[in-house]
Design a protein that fits this description.
CATH superfamily of the largest domain in chain A: DNA primase, PRIM domain
Distance between the termini of chain B: 57 Å
Number of helices of chain B: 18
Strand order of the largest sheet of chain B: 1-2-4-3
Order of helices and strands of chain A: HEEHEEEEHEEHHHHHHHEEHEEEEHE
Shape of chain B: elongated
Order of helices and strands of chain B: HHHHHHHHHEEHEEHHHHHHHH
Helix content of chain A: 25-40%
Oligomer: heterodimer
Number of domains of chain A: 3
Low-confidence stretches of chain A: none
Radius of gyration of chain B: 27 Å
Number of strands of chain B: 4
Largest sheet of chain B: 4 strands, antiparallel
CATH topology of the largest domain in chain A: DNA primase, PRIM domain
Largest interface: A-B, 36 and 33 residues
Number of domains of chain B: 2
Low-confidence stretches of chain B: 258-263, 387-406
CATH class of the largest domain in chain A: Alpha Beta
Number of strands of chain A: 15
CATH architecture of the largest domain in chain A: Alpha-Beta Complex
Structural class of chain A: alpha+beta
Structural class of chain B: mainly alpha
Largest sheet of chain A: 4 strands, antiparallel
Radius of gyration of chain A: 25 Å
Shape of chain A: globular
Strand order of the largest sheet of chain A: 2-1-3-9
Number of helices of chain A: 12
Strand content of chain B: under 5%
Chain lengths: ~350, ~400
């Protein structure tokens, strides 16, 4: 355990000594927080820290060797005040967190979890552009180094929004309890419902919903241009009166469509105007991967592009079974094995607690 | 003869909250001290009017304010009076409220009319400033009520205005809007007002949102402006003046103020469904998210339980850790200086901690209303033989009426 920690401290320290971290904009107004590697596995956070200069910041890091570095989405008059109330909040970047663990799709491997998260973040980008009119250049997408992505919005207009206002944005994205109104999200949902309904009919899937012969016929009859137009126009009431089972089928489709169309962000992160978030460019202490700004989402492969350590061979002893694809290579190691692995994989396994350093 | 500020005098007299009031008062008085120290009859009367406005708020009365029956004059004027884009292009919403153009207005009305308008503008502007200064020295609930009632009064007037004036007022209040057949409001401007309007159709998810803009009909837009105005009027205007008026009104307000009701003994059967569920989940060892733990703890604290009682309630949970629980409960109770209040229904909904349609806006309201009903019922049964009773004084909850009216 001790050797593992010393090794990780050395590696993290090397990274921070040789890397010029880009400071967040207006960093003097931000609160910083650090979890020192030294205290791991206990998670001790040093917070309410502010910096006057980049040099001061770098000196602090090299002195502490943090496993995790966070900074505040908020800008404060007094970012280093100990009590939140004394900080004098000015404004805060609008931030979003998409974490594979909060998505409705459950995945078994970290690779597929990250793929799903990537799809979700690109849907978020699209809706922020199309519905909210936020320009792509005002957004920064960041791979969290763990199981998801963050998105930072830099816009004066949005920065001034308080928590209740941000919760409205959250509810919009999650399609939280929409009314049957002619709203963007409800119309989207209805269009999806109509499409799925037609698909279910085409695929002859109606039996799944336990419709009676008669109900099935009525429903198929109903799917003409006029009703489709009405339903897609937000009026699902036209299916009322065809029978309880038809109604419950429509409800099932509504729920399914909402889940499909909602962007599953982690709600408290966005609603909180004083949130601490990982510093882009820093290392994620539970993976050793870089919290990586992503310019081109399409071609970004987190388990390759967020690697900062080399491939020099390192001795480790696995504690659990390892199955992962990193830097384009498939790795399979049984538990309790003494192996030589590339440095980046060694750091990853040690950080995750899946191996110990040395043989 | 020059008639400074002529075209905006009716506007200032009618809507003294606009930012043009500042350069006008500056022009008339030089500085704010000379307003409050002035003993001229007009100014004394104006300050009295300011006090009356606040008094009317406290007593729940209406106050009549006179203003000239004239519109904003620049809309129908062709004079190239001043090098200013806002004026020349008649885009008054671009006005930066510097007031320079109005100082040098070349338009003229009869001396008598001008004098009368100027007097009304001065009086109403001073009354407005005075009312804000006075109300800022009173208890917050008076200021809130003042903001609501005054925003109502102004908004009735704005409703009757032509588009030019509405545009001007909207820009003045900082609402980003485009006017066409309907009004398009920027989503950030929309949210800053709408997040405070308690009605489902004002939730963002129920609106049409396109490229950052929300389309509103005239009624909804005016409702939004009213909310923005309310927010502006509620801001404290702290100034060391009119102390006597304030203390006199403060006594009056204290008599009006209803006592905050104690919630009485804790009655779990009156807990709202969300709190019942969280509590039962906790006690049955179901994993409860952080937001829900916070909600139940702050709820219990708000209805009057103390830390020890709460810990006892939680202690049947299988993963119970007394030390950790105590730390967290004490933190929420305000050990670190901030005392937290229970999240409102909107927040509960956002975090998926809401499980029912109770038709209240706050879990505490649900509890208060339920408790009150029970009390009234038991009282009613006890006093059946005493004949009819008056309704108990003080529907003092957060939701004034019954659940269902919110």
């Amino acid at each position: 355990m001790e050797r593992t920690r010393i090794y990780l401290m050395r590696k993290f320290s090397e990274y921070y000594a040789n890397t010029k971290l880009e400071m967040p904009r207006e960093f003097r107004r931000r609160e910083f927080a650090f979890v020192p590697l030294e205290n791991l596995p206990s998670f001790v956070m040093h917070r309410h820290i502010a910096f006057e200069s980049e040099e001061q910041f770098k000196a602090y890091i090299l002195n502490t060797i943090p496993a995790h570095i966070y900074y505040s989405s908020a800008y404060y008059q007094h970012p280093d005040a100990d009590r939140m109330d004394d900080k004098s909040w000015m404004r805060a970047d609008l931030i979003f967190d998409i974490d594979a663990d909060h998505l409705p799709v459950k995945t078994r491997t970290i690779e597929s979890a990250l793929k799903v998260a990537k799809k979700e973040i690109s849907r978020l980008v699209k809706i922020l552009q199309e519905d909210f009119g936020i320009g792509r250049k005002d957004m920064q997408i960041v791979f969290s180094g763990g199981r998801g992505y963050h998105l930072h919005v830099y816009s004066e207009d949005f920065a001034l929004l308080g928590s209740p206002e941000r919760r409205e944005i959250v509810d919009y994205l999650l399609i939280n309890k929409p009314l049957n109104a002619e709203s963007t999200q409800w119309l989207r949902t209805c269009r999806c419902v109509v499409k799925s309904l037609i698909m279910e009919v085409k695929r002859d899937n109606l039996e799944k919903y336990r419709l009676t012969e008669k109900q099935r016929e009525r429903l198929i009859q109903m799917l003409n241009k006029e009703t489709v137009r009405k339903a897609a126009g937000g009026d699902l009431g036209i299916f009322k009166g065809v029978g309880k089972r038809v109604e419950s089928m429509i409800n099932t489709l509504v729920e399914r469509c909402k889940t499909k169309l909602a962007v599953h962000i982690d709600a408290p992160v966005t609603a909180d105007t004083k949130r601490l978030i990982r510093l882009p460019g820093s290392l994620h202490g539970k993976t050793g991967l870089k919290v990586t700004p992503v310019d081109e989402l399409e071609n970004f492969d987190p388990l390759t592009d967020a690697i900062v350590f080399g491939d020099e061979k390192v001795k480790v002893r696995t504690l659990s079974k390892v199955r992962i694809r990193m830097a384009g290579e498939d790795v399979r190691i049984p538990a309790g094995e003494k192996v030589l692995v590339p440095e980046y994989l060694a750091v990853f396994l040690l950080c995750r607690g899946m191996a110990l350093y040395g043989h | 003869m020059a008639q400074p500020y002529l075209p905006v005098l009716p506007l200032i007299a009618k809507y003294p909250f606009v930012s043009l009031t500042a350069p006008f008062l500056q022009y008339e008085y030089g500085n704010i001290d000379s307003i409050f120290s002035s003993e001229k009859e007009l100014d004394v009367e104006a300050k009295k009017l300011g006090k009356e406005i606040v008094g009317a708020v406290i007593d729940g009365m209406r106050v009549e304010v006179r203003y000239p029956q004239a519109s904003f004059m620049c809309t129908s004027c062709d004079e190239k009076c001043f090098e200013c884009e806002a004026i020349l292009a008649k885009n008054f919403y671009l006005c930066s409220a510097c007031g320079k153009c109005f100082e040098s207005c070349v338009h003229e009305v009869s001396e008598e009319i001008y004098r009368n308008w100027r007097m009304l503008a001065r009086r109403n502007a001073v009354a407005y400033i005075s009312s804000r200064v006075i109300v800022s020295q009173l208890e917050p609930w008076v200021r809130r009520k003042y903001a609501v009632r005054e925003a109502d009064r102004y908004s009735e007037l704005i409703r009757e205005e032509e588009e030019g004036v509405i545009k001007l007022i909207s820009a003045d209040l900082g609402v980003r809007a485009n006017f066409g057949r309907s009004v398009r409001v920027h989503v950030t401007s929309y949210l800053r007002c709408a997040a405070r309007i308690k009605s489902d159709n004002w939730r963002l998810v129920n609106r049409k949102l396109e490229k950052g803009w929300i389309e509103l009909d005239r009624d909804d837009f005016l409702r939004l402006l009213k909310e923005k105005l309310r927010e502006k009027l509620e801001e404290p205007l702290e100034y060391d003046a009119l102390k006597e008026c304030a203390s006199e009104l403060s006594a009056r307000a204290a008599m009006q103020k209803r006592e905050v009701k104690d919630l009485g003994e804790v009655d779990v059967s009156c807990f709202p469904p969300c709190m019942k569920k969280i509590l039962s989940d906790l006690q049955h060892g179901v994993n409860v998210p952080h937001t829900a733990r916070f909600a139940i703890t702050s709820f219990l604290l708000n209805i009057g339980l103390n830390t020890n009682e709460i810990i006892t309630l939680f202690s049947s949970a299988p993963d119970f850790d007394e030390e950790k629980t105590r730390y967290q409960v004490e933190h929420i109770a305000g050990a670190k200086g901030t005392e937290y209040s229970c999240p409102a229904c909107d927040t509960m909904r956002t975090y998926h901690n809401c499980y029912a349609e109770c038709r209240v806006s706050h879990p505490i309201s649900y509890y208060e209303i339920c408790k009150r009903r029970k009390e009234e019922k038991s009282k009613g049964e006890r006093s059946k033989n005493e004949g009819r009773r008056g309704k108990s004084e003080g529907e003092r909850g957060r939701d004034k009426a019954n659940p269902g009216d919110s």
